[in-house]
Amino acid sequence: MKGKVAFIPQGHKLEFFEYDVPDPLPGGLVAEVTQTNVCGSEVHMWRGEFGRRGIMPGHEMAGRIHALGQGVTKDWAGVPVKPGDRIAPVYYTVCNRCENCVAGNHAGCVNRVMGAAHPDVPPHFTATFATHYVIKPEQHFYRIPDNVPDLIAASANCAMSQVYWALDRGRLSYGEKLLVLGAGGLGLHAMAIARERGARVIAIDGVDLRLAQARRFGADEVIDLRQYSDLKARQARVRELAGGGGPDVVLEVAGIPEAFVEAISLVRNGGRVIEVGNISGGLTAPIAPSLVTFKSIEIHGVATYPPHYLKKTLDFLTRHINRYPYLELCDARFPLSRAAEALDKSERKEVTRAALIPEQQ
Ligand SMILES: [Zn+2]
Ligand SMILES: [Zn+2]
Questions:
Q1: Which of 56, 156, 179, 262 has an alpha carbon 20 to 30 Å from 86's alpha carbon atom?
Q2: Which residues constitute the domain of residue 110?
Q3: 137 and 267 share a domain?
C-alpha cells in the first residue's frame, strides 16, 4: 500500500512524496491519519522561518490504528487497543535519561526527537501532513475516548496538553486568580482547564470573536485591549477585577515580546508568570529586571509537555466535552491535497484553525 507525506522545501511551497507504507516496528505501530491540523508552527514553516533545508509539516493529528507492531496490545495508559481503534500520539519522543527527564521535567528533555528532516528518510511517515504516520516503540500514544471526535482530539497533543502542563508548572490552584494574555487556541484551552480546577479567570484580548470565545471557554471577566489601550489603564483594571495586588498567575499566550514584559508587570508580588506564547527567535523586548527582583516573582518557560499529559488532556476532554464549544475552534476543513491552500489561508488569517482530511477517508 502506498501513502503520501508532505514536505515544505522553502517558504510558500509544498510538495507531496509517495512511498510504500512500512510495517510497524516491534513495539510501535502505524496509523492512518484521519485528521491533522494547521497549527501556528506550520504557519511559521510555510513562511520559511525554519531553516533553509526545508521541513516536514504536521504534528497535530487523530488517526486510526492501521497496523500494530509485535507485542503492542495496549496504549501507554494500559488501555487495550486493536487495529481500527482511534488514537492520538505525542508528536515527539523524550529520552528518559537526561537531567531534566530524570528530574520529572520531560518537557525540558534535551534529547527530544521529532520527525525526520526529509520524507526520504525511512520510515518516511514521521510528520502528520500525511496519509499515514509511524509511531515509534518509545513514542507515547493513547486511545481517543469514544465521545471525543477527531476534530477535537487532533489538537489535544499540542495546545491543550501544553497549557495543561503550563498551569501545573505555575501551580495554579483552587480559588486563585489566573490572568490569560491572549484568547487564541492556547488561551481558550487554558481558560477551560483553569475554570474546572476552581480558579477565577480573567482574559485580555483585542478581537471581538476571541473575547466572546473567552467567555464561552470559562473566562469570568474579559478585558478589551481596545478599551484599555495603555498599560497603566490595564493594570488598574486587572487589579480591580483580580482584587488585592493582582492575579496569582499570569499565562502569556499572546506570543509577542511585549506581552511577556506586561505579564511581569501585571502579576501580583510573589506571583507566577508562565511564558508559552513567544517562540520566534531573535525577537526582544526591554525589561526591567529589578521588577522580577523586587516583586519576588517566579517565571516558568513552557514548550511541549511531559508525554503522559496527553492522557490527562484526553481524560479532561471526555469529562468536559459538552461544557465548552470545542467544535467551534476548527473553522475550516480541507482535503490533504489542498494543504498549501489551507496554509495560505491560515497565514492570511482568513481561517483561524484549519483541519486537513486525507482523501482516502
Ligand atoms: Zn500545534
Ligand atoms: Zn531527556
A1: 56
A2: 2-155+330-357
A3: no
CA of 112 to the centre of ligand 2 (A): 7
CA–CA dist 12, 267 (Å, integer): 39
Alpha carbons 104 and 204: distance in angstroms, whole number: 32
Other CB atoms within 10 A of residue 256 CB: 16
Instruction: Tell me if residue 20 falls in helix, strand or coil.
Output: strand
* Closest-approaching ligand to the CA atom of 110: 2
Rounded to two decimals, the pTM is 0.94
The per-residue pLDDT for range 294-329, each reduced to its tens digit, is: 999 999 999 999 999 999 999 999 999 999 999 989
Give, in order, the Cα–Cα distances in Å from 349 to each of 56, 96, 280, 326, 334. 22, 38, 18, 19, 15
d(CA 88, ligand 2 centre) in Å? 21
The answer to whether residue 316 sits within a structural domain is no
Closest to 172 (Cα-Cα) out of 186, 146, 144, 192: 192
Residue type, 155: S
* The residue to which cell 480546577 is assigned: 197
Range list of β-strands (E), 99-168: 132-135, 141-143
Query: For position 186, which CATH number holds?
Result: 3.40.50.720
How many angstroms separate the alpha carbon of residue 3 from the centre of ligand 1? 23
- Spatial CB neighbours of 240, under 8 Å, sequence gap ≥ 6: none
